[in-house]
Design a protein that fits this description.
- With 221 residues, the chain is of the alpha/beta class.
- It has one domain (2-186): Spore Coat Polysaccharide Biosynthesis Protein SpsA, Chain A (Alpha-Beta Complex).
- 43% of the residues lie in helices and 22% in strands.
- It contains nine helices and eight strands.
- Helix 8 (193-208) runs antiparallel to helix 9.
Length: 221
């Protein structure tokens, strides 16, 4: 059975839409909302999901959610994402393959935006996957509980927690799922497509150069 773990912070509207895409999943054991101190009445829309509270630190929120989860498999999702129709079949097929017990799956990425800028960023994501083998957290992460615990789980870091864990998994054990996450372009609209893309690339480069995630978080914000 599957535990879906979602870190949140002031994303009530996005969470409502995501939960609607998960509501009829037969694989589902539970949904855990790991909140970082929202002040937008997010608790009113969690429905039957389990809500846990902590501080605003995404790595710590993900780790806390996993520590409370009961499923044999974990699916980590960002709250500003939605899953394509048919995702349940794709996830079930991955989970039933014994060879995937020590692998992790991720979705391809589509923005909810029809602009050419969105398509360029999607192409860059494809390049990053092909060249560096680095899916980001907004592409989801499907992983067996035992393998997650063997890896040591998410670290309590505010940024690059997704890059950190996929590097420990290793590109040979990262498998693309035949489905996509449709993610919000709101932050790109706010920052500008080029500016935000360059900021993401700068943070990734500095991380590889050894800059601490705490300092990177300050730069990012």
């Amino acid at each position: 059975m599957l535990s879906i773990i979602i870190p949140t912070l002031n994303c009530r509207s996005d969470l409502t839409q995501l939960l609607a895409t998960l509501s009829h999943c037969s694989l589902l054991h539970e949904i855990i909302i790991s909140d970082g101190g929202s002040n937008d009445s997010l608790s009113e829309v969690v429905g039957g999901a389990r809500l846990i509270m902590g501080k605003a630190n995404r790595g710590e929120q993900l780790a806390a959610g996993a520590s409370k989860a009961m499923g044999a498999w974990f699916l980590f999702l960002h709250c500003d994402s939605k899953l394509q129709s048919g995702w349940e079949y794709i996830v079930k097929k991955f989970m039933l393959d014994h060879n995937n017990r020590y692998r992790a799956g991720y979705f391809s990425l589509i923005f909810d935006d029809s602009s050419q800028s969105a398509r360029w960023v999607e192409q860059f994501v494809g390049w990053r996957l092909k060249t560096l083998g680095l899916p980001y957290g907004d592409q989801g992460l499907l992983i067996n509980r035992a393998y997650y615990e063997y890896l040591g789980g998410f670290k309590n870091i505010p940024l690059m927690e997704d890059v950190d864990i996929v590097r420990r998994i290793g590109r040979q054990r990262l498998m693309p799922l035949a489905s996509a996450v449709i993610t919000s372009a709101k932050r790109y609209h706010c920052d500008g497509w080029l500016r935000r893309s360059l900021k993401n690339l700068l943070c990734l480069t500095l991380y590889f150069l050894g800059v601490s995630p705490d300092l990177l978080d300050k730069i990012y914000r």
